[in-house]
Specification:
The protein is α+β, with helices and mostly antiparallel strands. Helices cover 49% and strands 21% of the residues. The protein is built from 5 helices and 5 strands; from the N terminus they run αααααβββββ. A 5-stranded mixed β-sheet has the order 1-4-5-3-2. The longest helix is centred in the middle third of the chain and has 33 residues. The radius of gyration is 30 Å and the shape is rod-shaped. The relative contact order is 0.09. The mean pLDDT is 88.
Length: 150
């Protein structure tokens, strides 16, 4: 087995990297992408630098971990920025600016209002009567801040 590993050259690593990238095309969701790129990097390094088979595999492992971690950091930062800007599946962001007609009188301060098929805690600076059109201006936690629409 050691003799086989000693005979591995840069072409083997390049072929291995290309095979991993081809397998990635079958839909592995990025799992093989960074392994394939790492194998190509080892193949490129082995072209110019003689390395033992142990160093080749250690390099492959280090490059695999490094490329995967770098991509994960970049993707995490991108995902966090996108989450702050999108409204899809974020009910609280979708509610801001909506107008509703009150079904019953509510006192100033905290109360409950019906919005669609759910009741919400609501806060109003002033007492509002039934049939008043109100606008949701802010949401803090689970409390809707409402004011009369003018």
């Amino acid at each position: 087995m050691v003799e086989v590993l000693d005979n591995v050259n840069h072409w083997h690593w390049i072929a291995f990297g290309l095979a991993l990238l081809a397998a990635e095309l079958l839909g592995t969701a990025g799992y093989l992408l960074w392994l394939g790129i790492s194998a190509l990097i080892v193949g490129a390094l082995l072209t110019w630098l003689p390395m033992s088979w142990q160093l080749q595999w250690v390099s492959f492992g280090v490059f695999s971990l490094a490329t995967t971690w770098l991509w994960w950091r970049k993707q995490l930062k991108s995902d966090q920025q996108d989450d702050n800007q999108r409204d899809l599946n974020q009910k609280t962001k979708q509610l801001i600016g909506q107008t509703i007609v009150l079904e019953h009188d509510i006192p100033a301060g905290k109360s409950r209002i019906k919005l669609a098929d759910t009741t919400w805690s609501a806060y109003s600076e002033q007492a509002l009567s039934a049939e008043t059109v109100v606008k949701i201006v802010e949401i803090k936690g689970i409390v809707l801040f409402i004011e009369e629409k003018k």
